[in-house]
Sequence to fold (146 residues):
Amino acid sequence: MKISTRGRYALRMLIDLAQHQADGTVTLKEIAVRQGISKKYLEQIAPLLVRTDILLGSRGYQGGYRLAKPPGMYRVGDILRVTEGSLAPVKCLEQRDNQCPRCGECKTLPLWQGLDGVISRYLDSITLEDLVENRIRGGEEPCNPL
Fold:
């Protein structure tokens, strides 16, 4: 499973909004500048997040976006499912009803189901607030920005 740019940028956008929620509505231009993301790309992501009730948007003078709920009520897994569609590690697990003709005899299915469960439980255990408050410990690899 690989998280797309859309999923990564949506998380960065939502973290930015959570950090600036006291400012009221925030424009995409402000987020784009702070996050180093193209405003045009954010314009593609924002409507999806509004349609799925993650964001509230207002138009016109003093318009912008804000979170629909407190940051602690957003699970990272839910956000990524909205932006990515599925977090399943293999195609046969993307649907609730496994349609694979080999489902009954597949020796690797339990492996993929286990991995799917680990991924879902992990991402669903982290909230937007956890990310804002730096409560997540990453791996042991150091960050080496270019």
